[in-house]
Prior knowledge:
Elements: E1 2-7, H1 14-22, E2 26-28, E3 42-47, H2 49-58, E4 64-68, H3 81-89, E5 95-104, E6 109-112, E7 115-120, E8 127-133, E9 142-144, E10 146-150, H4 158-163, E11 171-176, E12 186-188, E13 194-200, E14 203-207, E15 215-216, E16 221-234
Parallel strand pairs: 1-2, 1-3, 3-4
Antiparallel strand pairs: 5-6, 5-16, 7-10, 7-14, 8-9, 8-13, 10-11, 11-12, 13-16, 14-15
Amino acid sequence: MKALLYARYGQYPKEIEELIRAAGLEILPPAPSSPSFPSPDVVVTFGGDGTILGAERDYPGIPKLPLRDSKNCHICSTLPNEEIVRLLVKNKLPIREYAKLEVICSQKHGLALNDVTIRNKLLNVALRFTVTVNDEEPTPELIGDGVVIATPFGSTAYSYSITHAIFNQGFGMAFNNIHNAALPERVVPEDAVIKVAITRGPADLGLDNDPEIPALSDGDVIAVKKAAQTAKILTP
């Protein structure tokens, strides 16, 4: 089995590498995806939730094995890392698939495992925008900090800090400091298409913890829907 080690800033303890090698796995060097580069069978992440997001962004679709190195890792097992690797080698870790979001707009076409964040670029200037779900009428113009669209995987993150609620199906919309309308959080079915139209910006668009944050302007429309691709995570 070929494994690729993925850690924050590319730094992981020597004992993790030794643990993987002792289990009989071949460790591949990190490299850009190319036909000549052997694809790993598993990406071993060492860190927390953010490390998993980065690994999924850089190596999408390849199963991830999260090893805990952070208190903020909701998906990580509480079992010792040695036991997790032992279960992997014995093929006793089921692959769980998690829905991802696809984002389409003129500035960005990407995927998010956790959430999509659209928010005001200037801290002292409110964002104005509308939201449309499928063929429904658009919301009235909303004035505030923006909106967070989350998957069930990401419902424990930024979305939770706004709504204090977790969901297990569909996609959640959390409206951030909207002061001209009483909008509760809303969970829409997985087949819904959400469109956010910027009526007065500027705004920023964030996908998970991607450091590339495109700027949004007046008239921009951001479409968000379920992606065809899923994230595959090995957990007990």
